[in-house]
């Protein structure tokens, strides 16, 4: 037996949900009883109301649709079909904007937009190195150095494949750091100083490196399996490291970026020697870095290497050594958002 409170709740829920759940059936009966102008009025209301239009587009039975078409004059022409297609597209009221390139041609990438593209700053110093001084610095440095050995053994001089595989790891720290800073901002009711955005930008940029290199080198099944395993280990290890010490985590990433610069420099040497073919640049790279139409793989590696140098700077800067030694917190030092 229901208590009075429970009965009230049930009544209220049924009162709210009833018309929604049963609206189709009600409409079917009522429209069938209508004639002429009344039918037209109902049809206008169905199609013109954003709420009812959307709901009926999803819940109407075939019979309902036929009645609706009949009410609007039975003009089931090609134009009518295109109207129906439009209804489906606008189901959630979202129309994808038409995006064009500077020359007016259609923008073909959904994964990034023209306003996210940029020209890489190739003048950046590629040789900058943070000399490890503190215990944490040395720990970070030797952790990264020790990871390089198995990587060298596994990939040898297959730099295309190496780049693709390493980018699957390189895109993790920015996302983990950004996510944890996001949660910290929520927890503490405080601003992030732009660091969430800066780190997520870095993750996105690294992922674009991967999207580029997978056009050049296709992963084999055992390489995919390796990525699966390494991601599981690295994501969790970096997550815990960032929780324990953002200073250490950013320092590790700073050194990883230094290694990435080294790898891409070796990649360029192989391209110049001709041991790796300097193929045409993938279309995605040409649009993302605003490269000339005749750009080659060498141009792509140059801009990616410049990106890595920027990530190196951001992470060494973010490493709490650089910021906390000045008595500041990360949020107090404005993040280099949009630093490419
Ligand atoms: Fe990268
Ligand atoms: Fe990087």
TrEMBL record:
Could you tell me the membrane topology recorded for this protein?
Multi-pass membrane protein
Asked if the keyword Transmembrane helix belongs to this entry, the reply reads yes
User: What Gene Ontology terms describe where this protein resides (cellular component)?
Assistant: mitochondrial inner membrane; respiratory chain complex
Query: What name does UniProt use for this protein?
Result: Ubiquinol oxidase
Alphabetized, the UniProt keywords read:
Electron transport, Iron, Membrane, Metal-binding, Mitochondrion, Mitochondrion inner membrane, Oxidoreductase, Respiratory chain, Transit peptide, Transmembrane, Transmembrane helix, Transport
Which organism is this protein's natural source?
Cynara cardunculus var. scolymus (Globe artichoke)
According to its UniProt entry, the protein's GO biological process terms are:
alternative respiration
> Any note on cofactor binding?
Binds 2 iron ions per subunit.
Requisite cofactors = Fe cation
GO MF term (any one)? metal ion binding
